[in-house]
Design goal:
about 90 residues, mainly alpha
Length: about 90
């Protein structure tokens, strides 16, 4: 082989290596971009879930406060009924 042939072989290998590097970097960047989108979407879903959990907890707190008031009223009525029953006995 002549010197010119070796130059073509080395040039072809260099171009192949360059193309391989560009393709690899492109694939890696596309994968990272997709992964970032998926993570962002997942974080958005977690944020919505946390917001709905907070709303549910607030609603439960209001319901428990109302039940506490009703339970207190029932307790006072029960005490008065017990007092009346003790007076009758």
């Amino acid at each position: 082989m002549s010197e010119h042939d070796w130059t073509e072989v080395v040039g072809a290998i260099g171009i192949f290596a360059l193309l391989l590097s560009v393709i690899t970097v492109t694939i890696v960047q596309v994968a990272k971009t997709r992964r970032a989108r998926v993570v962002g979407a997942r974080e958005e879903e977690y944020r919505r879930l946390a917001e709905s959990a907070v709303q549910a907890q607030e609603a439960n707190g209001r319901v428990l406060a109302a039940l506490d008031g009703r339970l207190g009223a029932m307790e006072s009525r029960l005490v008065s009924v017990e007092r009346v029953l003790k007076e009758v006995d």
